[in-house]
UniProtKB/TrEMBL annotation:
<feature type="transmembrane region" description="Helical">
    <location>
        <begin position="27"/>
        <end position="48"/>
    </location>
</feature>
<feature type="transmembrane region" description="Helical">
    <location>
        <begin position="210"/>
        <end position="229"/>
    </location>
</feature>
<keyword id="KW-0813">Transport</keyword>
<keyword id="KW-1133">Transmembrane helix</keyword>
<feature type="transmembrane region" description="Helical">
    <location>
        <begin position="150"/>
        <end position="170"/>
    </location>
</feature>
<keyword id="KW-0472">Membrane</keyword>
<dbReference type="Pfam" id="PF01490">
    <property type="entry name" value="Aa_trans"/>
</dbReference>
<dbReference type="GO" id="GO:0015179">
    <property type="term" value="F:L-amino acid transmembrane transporter activity"/>
</dbReference>
<feature type="transmembrane region" description="Helical">
    <location>
        <begin position="102"/>
        <end position="121"/>
    </location>
</feature>
<keyword id="KW-0029">Amino-acid transport</keyword>
<feature type="transmembrane region" description="Helical">
    <location>
        <begin position="60"/>
        <end position="82"/>
    </location>
</feature>
<dbReference type="InterPro" id="IPR013057">
    <property type="entry name" value="AA_transpt_TM"/>
</dbReference>
<feature type="domain" description="Amino acid transporter transmembrane">
    <location>
        <begin position="18"/>
        <end position="231"/>
    </location>
</feature>
<feature type="transmembrane region" description="Helical">
    <location>
        <begin position="176"/>
        <end position="198"/>
    </location>
</feature>
<keyword id="KW-0812">Transmembrane</keyword>
<protein>
    <recommendedName>
        <fullName>Amino acid transporter transmembrane domain-containing protein</fullName>
    </recommendedName>
</protein>
<dbReference type="GO" id="GO:0005774">
    <property type="term" value="C:vacuolar membrane"/>
</dbReference>
Length: 239
C-alpha cells in the first residue's frame, strides 16, 4: 500500500479540473463498490468466537472499521488526484512498469494466497456440514477416513475452481465488484442482520429498536434493487 501511495504522489496532477461528482447516477455504482470493500464482515462471527475475550469484540470491531475507512478514503483520494478519470478499476494498472509495481503485484498475490482460504472458510463449513449430515455420507464415507478426506478436499478444490473460473470470465472488474456489493454484500450487511435480530428478539426489544431494524431492512432492499439496476446499466455501457 505504501508503494502504491508513493507512486500516486509522484503522479499527482492537482485538483484543477477535477469533479467530485461528475455523474450523480453513478453514486449507487460507487456505493456498491464501497459496500463490497467491507466484504470481511462475513467473518465477524467466526472472529468473535475465536477471541480470547469475546466481550471486547464490539470495541475492536469499531476501531478496525474507523481505521480501515480512513485508509480507504486516503487511498482513493490520492489515487484520483494522481490519475483523474483515467483511474483503472485495479490501481496497479495505473502504476509504471518498474520494480516497485512488480513488488506490489507479488505482495497482492501472496496476500491473496493467505487471506482467500480464511474468507472461504464459512463457505466450506456450510457445504461440508450439509454433506456430513447426509445419510449416504454417514453410511459410505464417514467410516472410511481416506475417502472422507479425499471427498472433502475434492469439494474444496471444486469450489476454488468455480470461483477462479468466475474471476477469469468477468469482463469488467469494477462492474462485477459493484454488482456483488449491491446484491450479496448489501443483504449480508444490512438486511439479514436486522431481519434475524427481529426474529430472535422481537418480544424483547423496544419500539425504537423495531424501527431501526425495519429502516435497515427497507433501506438495504432499496439500495440492493437500485444499486443492481445502476450496476447492470453501467456494465452494459462498458461491455
Amino acid at each position: 500500500m505504501g508503494v502504491v501511495i508513493k507512486d500516486d504522489l509522484g503522479s499527482l496532477q492537482g485538483v484543477d479540473g477535477a469533479v467530485a461528482f461528475k455523474n450523480w447516477s453513478g453514486i449507487p455504482f460507487a456505493l456498491g463498490i464501497a459496500v463490497f470493500s467491507y466484504e470481511g464482515f462475513g467473518m465477524t462471527l467466526a472472529l468473535e468466537a475465536s477471541m480470547k475475550k469475546p466481550h471486547l469484540f464490539p470495541r475492536v470491531l469499531a476501531q478496525a472499521f474507523v481505521l480501515i475507512t480512513l485508509l480507504y478514503i486516503a487511498f482513493g483520494l490520492i489515487g484520483y488526484l494522481a490519475f483523474g478519470d483515467g483511474t483503472k478499476d485495479i490501481i496497479t494498472l495505473n502504476l509504471p512498469n518498474d520494480w516497485s509495481t512488480i513488488v506490489v503485484k507479488a505482495g497482492l498475490c501472496i496476500a491473496l494466497a493467505f487471506t482467500f482460504p480464511v474468507m472461504m472458510y464459512p463457505v466450506h463449513e456450510m457445504v461440508e456440514s450439509k454433506l456430513v449430515a447426509c445419510s449416504f455420507y454417514q453410511r459410505k464415507i464417514a467410516t472410511q477416513p481416506v475417502y472422507d478426506r479425499l471427498l472433502l478436499n475434492g469439494i474444496r478444490v471444486i469450489i476454488l475452481l468455480i470461483t477462479g473460473a468466475i474471476a477469469i470470465m468477468v469482463p469488467v472488474f469494477g462492474v462485477f465488484v459493484s454488482f456483488v456489493g449491491s446484491t450479496v454484500c448489501a443483504m449480508l450487511a444490512f438486511v439479514f442482520p436486522a431481519f434475524f435480530h427481529l426474529q430472535v428478539f422481537k418480544n424483547r426489544i423496544s419500539t425504537w429498536q423495531w424501527i431501526v431494524d425495519l429502516v435497515l431492512i427497507v433501506a438495504g432492499i432499496a439500495f440492493a434493487v437500485y444499486g443492481t439496476y445502476s450496476t447492470c446499466s453501467s456494465g452494459v455501457e462498458q461491455v
